[in-house]
Amino acid sequence: MVRTALRSWGTPATVRPATLDDVADLIALDAEFGRGPVARARRGSVGARERGAGDRITERYRAAVDEPSTRLLVAVVADEPVGVALLLLHGMASSVDSQPCLHVAHLLVAARARRRGIGRALLAEAVAVADELGLDAVSVGVRPGDREANRYFARLGFAPVAVRRLAPVALLRRQLGQLATPTARPTGGPSSPVLRRRLRTPGHSAADRRRDAAGA
Length: 216
Known about the structure:
Helices cover 38% and strands 19% of the residues. By secondary structure, the chain is an alpha+beta fold. The protein has a single domain (3-155), classed as Aminopeptidase (3-Layer(aba) Sandwich). The chain has a six-stranded mixed sheet with strand order 1-2-3-4-5-6, sandwiched between helices. The longest helix is centred in the first third of the chain and has 19 residues, at 48-66. The protein starts with a strand and ends with a helix.
């Protein structure tokens, strides 16, 4: 579906599904914000891991063009991409609320095109897609520290639901005091004596409990 929003600057902004030909422009738009692996790769300030992350973002855009579970939208003015929105068609309101919703996983508007209705045009198309799928809600991912974006979405009626935090496995292992990578445990039952005692059935005998305590 193609929608057009009339802009005050005189040139209409059109929202349409992205194609593979748009991916390079969308990556450039992503890098314009000066953050993330794509932007840092352009500045030459990343290692192999982050260059790989930049490649994954490029592949994610390319895959989203044809994936049936996503819609990749682009807003263009005079054939120039000025905004992008990545929609996930089978989202949930939060990790504890299974209400199905349309999730706007990624929404960017070029700095030169802000405050001209581009974001609203992209979100209007997201609402149209939600209606098409019979979904009653739309969610959006926002960086916690992005005050401007949070205020923008709050004014449109988006309420905070949950904050998702991310930690590298290696860092989390250190913080938890796990200096070595844990080995795989048998799947037949709990391996800890403490867990065995906690999960014991009510009919366990006193002798069994004494043997378990001695083994602990």
